[in-house]
């Protein structure tokens, strides 16, 4: 469930709130959906990145794209593919940028104790400068949107 701006939200005992960066959206996530997403990350996730930007990636066989769509609904991100590489046919889920910053507290709080958790902590430390860099204010983003021409799409 999505709500924009200062709308009223229903009480939900087993829900968590996920806040977006660019616009103010609130997404209610139930415990099962959150646990399923964290299980996918713990089992198949890869905390990676290049020199500039970290990312979370999950790759699954092309016949199993639904779990990646679930991650996309819970955390945001994009799904790429299908790819055929070395006899493997797969889709790739990638979370980075503002969406990754938004999801980081949720991952930090709910990723279970495991080797993947250790990898997450090492990855988080490696990209400390990126994650601790201040985000532009909403006022600055609004001014930039007014100055830039609107994309036709």
Write up this protein.
The protein is an alpha+beta fold and 153 residues long. The chain has a domain at 31-124: Roll (Endonuclease I-creI). Helices cover 42% and strands 29% of the residues. The chain has helices at residues 31-44, 66-75, 97-110, 115-126, 128-132, 138-147, and strands at 2-4, 15-19, 25-30, 45-49, 54-61, 78-85, 88-96. A four-stranded antiparallel beta sheet has the order 4-5-7-6. A hairpin with a 4-residue loop joins strand 4 and strand 5. Helix 1 (31-44) crosses helix 2 (66-75). The two termini are 25 Å apart. The model is unreliable at 1-14 and 19-25 (pLDDT under 50).
Précis, in short:
The chain is an alpha+beta fold and 153 residues long.
What descriptive keywords fit this protein?
alpha+beta, three-stranded antiparallel beta sheet, Endonuclease I-creI, globular, 153 residues, 29% strand
Topology:
Layout (H helix, E strand, L loop, with lengths): L1 E3 L10 E5 L5 E6 H14 E5 L4 E8 L4 H10 L2 E8 L2 E9 H14 L4 H12 L1 H5 L5 H10 L6
Antiparallel strand pairs: 1-3, 2-3, 4-5, 5-7, 6-7
Helix pairs in contact: 1-2
Determine the mean pLDDT.
Answer: 82
Low-confidence parts lasting 5 or more residues at pLDDT below 50? 1-14, 19-25
**Estimated helix fraction:** 40-55%
CATH topology of the domain at 31-124: Endonuclease I-creI
Order of helices and strands: EEEHEEHEEHHHH
Number of strands: 7
The appropriate CATH architecture of the domain at 31-124 is Roll
**C-alpha end-to-end distance:** 25 Å
CATH superfamily of the domain at 31-124: Homing endonucleases
For the biggest sheet, the summary is: 4 strands, antiparallel
